[in-house]
Structures are given as C-alpha cells and as structure tokens.
Amino acid sequence: MSDQHAAPIPEAVLPRHPADGFTADPLGVLDEGHRRHGPVFRMSVDGVDTVLVGTWAGLGELFAAERGRLDVLNTPLVHDLFGRALFNITADSHGEARRRLRPVLSGRALPGYVPPLLDVIGPVTEQWALHGTADLHGQVRELTGAMSARVLLGITPGEADAARFAAAFEEFIAATGAPPGPARYADRRYWAGRSARRELHALFARRAAQLGGDAAGGSALAGLVAAFADAPDEAGPLEDHLLALLIAARETTASLLTWCLVELAGHREPAEYAAAEARTVAAEPDRLVARDAPSALRSVLAETLRLHAPNLLSMRKAVCPFTLAGHRIEAGTRVAYSPSAGHFDPKTFPRPRQFRPGRFLAGQASASRLWAFGGGAHACLGRPLAELMALAVMAAVLQKGLPSLPAGPPARISFRPAKAPIDALPFALEPAS
Fold first, then answer.
1. ∠ CA(207), CA(208), CA(209), 5° rounding?
2. How far apart are the first and last CA of the chain?
C-alpha cells in the first residue's frame, strides 16, 4: 500500500534505466526496464527525468495511490489550447467537472446514441464494402470525427455545420503538434489552432443556444448544457470540456478501431466468429449496449485494448511525497505509466504478445482489468462511449464482409500521440464464406 508517511528511502535506491532506443522501440525499452528493475524505475523521457511505472501490480498500486497525490501533467501548449478542460484542472475543480460530465457518458445514456451512430457509420462501411480504402487509419479518423460530432454536438453529416466543424477541428488538432514550450509561439500551427479554438467555441455556443428540449436528437449536448447551467467557475467552461471530449473521442477511438480491424484482418477464425455475432446485432442493435453481449465483439475489443493501448504514456506530477513499490517518490517528480507495460505482464496475461481474444471469452481475464483508459481518480470518463463507437463500427464492417489488408499489416508504427500506422494502409472487405 502507498503511504505518504512511510519512512523515506534514499533516492539512489530507485534504479535508473537507459533510454537508448526508446524512440524507435518504446515498448521494447519499457519491457526491458521492468524485467530488470521491477514495477518502478527512472528513465529520461523527452529529455526529462521521469519515474516509469509498469507491471500489473505496479499500475494497480499507482492508481490506488493517485487521489490527492498525483495530478495530470500537461504541457503549456495543451493548457493554451484546451484551457480549463477536464484534464487540465485539479483537486476539487476536477471532481466537480467529472460529476457534471459523467451522466451523458455513462451506460444509461448509451442506448440513445446507438441509432445516430449507426446512421453515420452505415454509408461509410457501405463504401468500404464496395471500394475498400487506400488508407484505413485516415478513413477511420474521418469516421470517428463524424461520429463524435454527431453524438456530442448533434451535427449530422451533410449539414452546413459538419463542414465548418471538420475544417476548424483539423486546424485545432494540427496545433497539438506544435512545440510544447516557448517555441510554440513561432509555429504557424499554434496560432492557427488558437484561431480554430475560438471558432469552435463559437460553434458550440451557437448550437447550445439553438437547443429546444431534446432537439439534438441522440446528442449529449442538451444534457451537458443542463449540467453546466449552474456550474461554479471552478468546474471550467463547457466549451473547453467539449474540446477535450471531442479530441479523445476522435483520436483515441480512431487508434483503437484501426487496430481492431488490423487484428481481425490477420486472424480469420476470430473474425468469422465475430462476424456471425455481428449479423445478430444487425437485427437487434441494442445488443451493442447490453452488458453481457455481444461477447465475441467485446472479446476482440478487449484483446485489442490490451495489445494496442492508444496512449503509450500518461504523465502525472506528484503533489506530495508518497511511496510506490517500496520507493519514495518526492513532490514535484514527473511520473509516467504505460498501460502496455501492465497489459504485457505474463503473470496476468499468459502469452502476452499473442492476439488471443478467447482469453476474454473463457473467463481467463476480465476487460475491467485493462488500463488502456487509465484508472483511479483520473480514469477516462469516455470509456463507455469509445467502446460503443468501436463496437458499432466493427459490427457494421463485419456485416459486410471480413477485413483484409491487401498490402499486408503496417510496417512502421508511430506510438505518440496515439498508436497508429505511419504509412497509408490499404483496407478491403472480402465476402464471408
């Protein structure tokens, strides 16, 4: 157990691991570090001394200790672009914002999102079935962007605001690639992103003002407007929270969904099993939000989350001294955890490098034990919505055919900001046998 009053352990006890090769093979370096040193070690990440936390036991202890001891650590660039969004605020402000955001992202709200999501997904998967695509991840990002706009803002594809939102949001996302420190001021993307932020805020405010009752029709916006109508200033403005929800729903879900389809393309038997279940979902779409179904699709989703956590590292900052795995962590220390460093723990997941969705069917493992969406006080509120979006697309795709990668699997992978193929990835659907 973590205890901020435990007797101090000399800092030298915390082992240091070399960062050589981290850019080219980050998971390999993290895996080697944990095999040598256990759950916790020091390493330079982006030129900053950082405590790395991994293994199943290490992550569990970290999340149990997080409340009151660790805050999310973001760069000045992220603070400039996202303002007082959920992941930029701390302490009571963070808790107040979570309380107001949670209802529209929880399981009770999901059934209302199924019909509008399927309306957005249908035409895209129909095109994939007819013509395939030259770039799977690029197409998936467009699709998750349209799905996010529909569910969070009530923007339907084809309406005038759809094009306005897509253009401004692309500028905003591009700005997240600017230098994180003072050099951002000399980067054109930063200023274009600040302009896009103002444009998006105005669009959000206008759509909120136009709401009448439940006029959004399957959108979270009406509920969010009501939840923040009497919110104190400490909860942050709804417009900032919407930016955070939209970028997470688009980028994280796009990564997750891309790897779901890549793994299905490479593993015929699980794909056929999931396709049979997808055909039952076509007749009963509400099965997508049933807690115990669809089991085959959910097992594919869980195993993809395990193997391909979208975020390589999540950063925290210690706000007070505490101990972790027997090591004293001083206030001000940068702490990072990697979901994959826990998901590849062979003590918890035998044969961890293999794609074996059956491990979640046979009761060997529980999807609730996965850390891809974090844990503890800062666990991602959007997990239920992200999983619904991924399940809905997988079901729609598998109703049309079995995924295929005509040019083979990705040869090069980028792990940051979200895990994705570097090169264009051709994708097609083959008729099921």
1. 90
2. 53
Phi then psi for 8, rounded to 5 degrees?
-60, 145
Structure-token match 């779409």, residue found: 285
What are 376's two structure tokens?
């503890």
- pTM of the entire structure? 0.93
**Facing residues of 429 across strands?**
403
3 state DSSP class of 31:
helix
Distances (CA, A) of 409 to 53, 110, 132, 417, 431: 30, 33, 15, 20, 20
Q: What is the pLDDT of residues 312-366, one digit of tens each?
A: 999 999 999 999 999 999 999 999 999 988 899 888 889 999 999 999 987 667 7
Task: Tell me the CA distances in angstroms from 121 to 107, 228, 309, 397, one per residue in order.
Answer: 20, 30, 23, 9
| 218, 113 Cβ separation under 8 angstroms | yes
Written as one letter, the residue type at 58 is G
Render pLDDT for 398-412 as a digit per residue (tens, 0 to 9): 999 999 999 999 999
The neighbouring-strand residues paired with 323 are 328
Mean pLDDT rounded to a whole number for the chain:
92
* Cα–Cα distance list, 392 to 91, 120, 124, 376 (Å): 35, 10, 12, 27
173, 82 in Cβ contact below 8 A?
A: no
Question: How far is 395 from 398, CA to CA, in rounded Å?
Answer: 5
Helix axes 136-153, 383-400, angle to 10 degrees: 130
Q: CA-to-CA distance for 253 and 155, rounded, in angstroms?
A: 18
Least confident of 135-139, 197-201, 368-372, 393-397: 368-372
Q: How many CB atoms lie within 10 A of CB 342?
A: 29
Do the Cβ atoms of 124 and 404 come closer than 8 Å? no
- Do residues 172 and 194 touch, judged by C-beta distance below 8 A? no
Q: Which phi and psi (to 5°) does residue 325 adopt?
A: 50, 40
Task: Give the mean model confidence (pLDDT) for residues 68-95.
Answer: 95
Q: Quote the longest CA-to-CA distance of the chain.
A: 65
Nearest to 40 by CA among 329, 352, 348, 347: 329
- Please report where in the chains the tokens 């990564």 appear, as a residue: 255
How confident is residue 212, by pLDDT bands cut at 50, 70 and 90? low
Q: Measure the CA–CA gap between 112 and 219, rounded to whole angstroms.
A: 8
**pLDDT tens-place string over residues 274-315:** 999 999 999 999 999 987 777 999 999 999 999 999 999 999
Indicate the burial class of 347 (C-beta count within 10 angstroms; 0-12, 13-18, 19 or more): exposed
